[in-house]
Design brief:
The chain is an alpha/beta fold. The protein has one domain: Zn-dependent exopeptidases (Aminopeptidase). Helices cover 39% and strands 15% of the residues. The chain has a seven-stranded mixed β-sheet with strand order 2-3-1-4-7-5-6, with helices on both faces. Strand 2 and strand 3 form a beta hairpin. Helix 6 packs across helix 8. The N and C termini lie far apart (56 Å).
Length: 272
């Protein structure tokens, strides 16, 4: 008898790639995934801020991002399944520009960078949300915060000045896109601020703006969430609490869902 034909090799399971609106004559709610890029700040040799009891920002924000990822991956908005993408899913260093590029590579619909403030005095407290600014910071504190966060690359040995110049040349061609991005980012920021404000005190009642390098994707609404002041002993204790980390993830999830309810992702075109 003839030998049996070899079995066809199993086809690898390929994750669904979000379809770009406009690729088809008609778009249905299930055409593509909604992708949310989560960016846990710092990592590796860059611990971020360190609280009075030794809590490291990089550890807390990674845990909150992982909890939020679980919630996003279990959520559907108007028939569209959501998926979270983490710019880092372990304790390692990622340059600021690479974080932005990773989000663009997966055609993210949103970019949420997660941090935990420190200030020069332990009395500072409350959560904040930041969007990008093209025309200077909205306050001296916002400028101080952006300058501090933008120095993360120096810890990892990155030539931040040269990279900033390269990115400046790249993004100055995209001023109109950035203007639209900032408008969407402010909308997202206001919704997130409203949800986080239900957990405790806000540092500022409005979305602040400054030149954060990590918010400069020209085509993705991007915000930076400072969850609390890790330099405040009381807030550090809350940040260490798994129950509070769960509450933070729940609040951020509610805000993201509310944003998409008002801003259906299929209505947005992609330019990546």
């Amino acid at each position: 008898p003839l030998p049996a034909a070899p079995a066809a090799p199993a086809r690898p399971i390929v994750p669904a790639v979000p379809a770009r609106p406009g690729n088809r004559a008609t778009a249905t709610p299930t055409d593509r995934l909604i992708i949310v890029a989560l960016d846990p700040g710092h990592g590796g040799e860059d611990p971020g801020a360190i609280g009075p009891a030794g809590t490291r920002e990089k550890d807390v924000v990674l845990r909150v991002a992982q909890l939020l990822r679980q919630r996003i991956n279990a959520t559907t908005v108007a028939g569209n399944p959501m998926r979270a993408y983490l710019t880092r899913d372990g304790d390692y260093f990622v340059p600021l520009g690479t974080r932005v590029q990773k989000a663009r590579d997966v055609q993210a619909d949103l970019f949420v960078s997660i941090h935990a403030d420190a200030f020069t005095t332990p009395a500072a407290r409350g959560a904040s949300v930041f969007a990008l600014s093209q025309s200077g910071a909205s306050s001296a504190a916002a400028r101080w915060m952006a300058n501090k966060e933008n120095q993360s690359d120096l810890v990892g040995g990155i030539n931040a000045q040269r990279q900033a110049q390269d990115r400046y040349v790249q993004f100055t061609k995209l001023d109109m896109s950035i203007t639209a991005q900032i408008k969407d980012s402010l909308q997202l920021g206001r919704v997130l601020l409203g949800e986080i404000g239900q957990l405790g005190q806000l540092h500022k009642p409005q979305v602040e703006q400054a030149g954060f390098a990590v918010l400069k994707a020209p085509d993705i609404p991007s915000v930076l969430v400072e969850t609390a002041f890790i330099s405040n002993p009381e807030e550090e204790k809350r940040l260490r609490s798994s129950a509070y980390q769960e509450q933070l993830a729940n609040a951020l999830m509610r805000g993201i869902t509310r944003y998409f309810a008002k801003n259906p992702p299929l209505a947005r075109s992609r330019s990546v």
